[in-house]
Amino acid sequence: MAKLPHVKKPCSNCPFRKDTVKGWLGRGRMTEILGAPSFVCHKKTSMQCAGHMLINGQENHFVRLAGSLEIALKLSGRDQVFDTKADCIEHHAD
Fold this sequence. Notes:
Layout: H1 26-35, H2 50-56, H3 61-68, H4 85-92
Helix pairs in contact: 1-4
């Protein structure tokens, strides 16, 4: 079975987690990151970020690529990331 390079669950300090430091990245930077077509994990820089894939779903190009290639990403931890992008941006606002 083919595999794609990705993290399967949000790391302990993933910026998309609900328990991340409030105001950490600022409104502008988080808006920019969430609007990106994909995002590489800040810890495992050769792997796609689970948090970004979970919060963006089908808007994430890596998620769509996996789907088109019929490769299961087996992501977990959806309950750890913000429910909406707006909530995530507000949390990171200065």
